[in-house]
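Morning F.,

Quick status update on the modeling queue. The single chain you submitted on Monday has been processed. Sequence for confirmation:
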Amino acid sequence: MKKIALLLLLGFVSVTGIAIGQNRTETTLEKGWKFTREDNVASINRDFDDRNWESVRIPHDWAIYGPFSSTNDRQDVAITQDGQKEAMEHAGRTGGLPFVGVGWYRNSFEVPNFSADKKVTIQFDGAMSNAHVYVNGKEAGIWRNGYNTFHFDITDLINKDGKNNTLAVRLENFSEQSRWYPGAGLYRNVHVIVTNDSHIPVWGTYVTTPRVNNEFAEVNVKTKIEFPDDASTSSDYELETVVKDIEGNPVAQQIDKLGAFADKEFDQSLIVMNPVLWDIEQPNLYSVQSTLKKAGAVIDTYNTTFGIRDIKIIPNEGFFLNGRMVKFKGVCMHHDLGPLGGAVNDAAIRRQIRILQDMGVNAIRTAHNMPAPELIKAADEMGMMIAVETFDEWGIAKVSNGYNKYFDEWAEKDVVNVVHHFRNNPSVVMWFIGNEVEEQSVMWGSRVARFLQDIVQREDPTRFVSNGMDRPDAVYANGMAAMMEVAGFNYRPFRYKEAYGRLPQQIILGAETASTVSSRGVYKFPLERKSMATYDDHQSSSYDVEHCSWSDLPEDNFVYHDDLPYCIGEFVWTGFDYLGEPTPYYTNWPSHSSLFGIVDLAGIPKDRFYLYRSHWAPEKETLHILPHWTWKGREGETTPVFVYTNHPTVELFINGVSQGKRTKDTSIGIDSTYTDKAQKEFERQKRYRLMWMDTKYEPGTVKAVAYDANGNEMGTEEIHTAGAPHRLVLEADRKTIKADGKDLSFITVSVVDKDGNLCPHTDDLVKFKVKGAGTYRAGANGNSASLDLFHEPQMHFFNGKLTAIVESTEQAGTIKFEASAKGVKNASMEIETTL
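Structure tokens below.
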């Protein structure tokens, strides 16, 4: 049944939401958990004695506390995706942390006023992995995928008085189940939802905006309603649907008698006048309040947050958001939060998004896993587009104990869950069904892709479906590339033209690009473009000229997406460094985290950040000089200088002597520059970065003066040779946080000389003290080979910088943070916490 209503007020489109009202309660089970690594089947029992178990708070990642070891999930395999032909040892492939094995969690909860006409659901936002859930000693359900959200009806397992219900969860991770650090435990939130037996179920609304223009938006709301088996008729009920603006004002309303309707889903359309659209960094959100009534009495109230926006892909022209062409300036992001591991944290996620937006990023691909709800909510509220990914492998194994073991039985259930979960969110603009799957190389592989794409399009026909493919010849031959709604290619941009000519879509997406590797503050001489370069220090050059055997440099992708209208943008591998995959250091323990990130594991930008910022955010002032200028022992040696800037021309000075002007060469195109000689001479780079290749090092000052196209001076930047380390400097991302026991402040700790210049070779140990209304949470330095434990209140500098994280308590007050290191002045600061 479909109804249409109109209220001449304001505007609206889509996120997710769970409403809480008198007839619906949701409790997030954060506290009171007990945890053990001992595997005892008696742990399911209500009377089991867990007093000696560890007390933890959820979200909890049991493995992030270490210790690091080369034997933790050491894999002797050939990584075929990386071109390896024979098995070799990979000690740090999954982070070197102890996630393999069994973990048990127990808690208790109450269901107030429980009665026979209540419905109780338990929802897990993610549990790593192979979750077996028990309530009062009886099995509630099993879910294999550690990344997906799932829920069970536990009404029949609740104690009759609703009190003292025992929840037990057994999780198990296997060796060789992942290609990176997956995390471990109840690392996302757990909720108990109580409703009446007639109710709107979890993810029970589907809100779309089939028509959007400046004058009005049509808002279509499909609402699922569940009734008890003995319900006489749905005609006793009515559904009131109200669209509200961000301030809670109603802008459209409709009330319908339910009567009989197909598949327990009621269809309504409302018209919102003068809609305010959701857009990039313009997160205009609305909500739908759905109220189920019986004989005038409210039975259930359910809220869905959403935002009005229009998306299209036009062949040969590109991706359009709200009527304008938008290129994806995207990054791929793993789920881990660096030193916090897999344990989800809203403050950490929002910090990542703020940093990425400052760089000019407008989209995130959740590679290669289903995201935490907190990420999607933050993206909705901050105006960041999302491409939600489902699987890294299908039925053919990449790793022996991966999702291939469950694909046939679980794939459709997992896809349906993730699509239903996030199909209302305006930030979500695309679904990815896979990444570099082995099915690319078999003739029937396209059938599996079609199977998954059909499920997505059945459950949500309003968004686009893609697949990260890295074997062009194979996916041409078996038809996989041709049948995908959006042909997504990983790497090899030099084959985009061929793909365009062979495929019917007339659109190419750089689903995964670059895989440039670098270490913050590390520079290798002589300066050369290199593939798979390794060094004794386990690092890669921050001159941004090193990459993997299958990949390239940023500009090798920029040029295609700038010059080919049918290229709709890219998702760079990766936005932040992540735990695991320390390529190219496959066998070189203690390397255990990636070098791909534009931002390091501590959340500190590398030089590459400013290259992307200069190109992706040209409206922002960027004038960045590299390398640092403290090179004792290199006096008189060739030390090239690069400048990343949004301006076309820069003149460089060393100690007041001009080294000449450089201007970006916009005449450099695609066809003329992809030769071995051009790569060695950095031809493409000359279009996007300014380079002085023959400068000689002498201590002192490097100065860059930027000019616009008309020769007007636009800005200056200087770097100086640093003296001896003198003092510590602290800078917090936020100096006021919430006193909720989980909000975080990230404090960058640097060591400088007496004049405030960063000391870029300092790797000394720093110790931390935290007093007052907070605690020390974790720290990181961005060194992929560092074995410092994240949770201990000390950390070595990596090239003069690190990040320390403090967490609030639940009492308002002042957090006093102090950092100290030998031979330099200590530093302290205060962070305020408020209720």
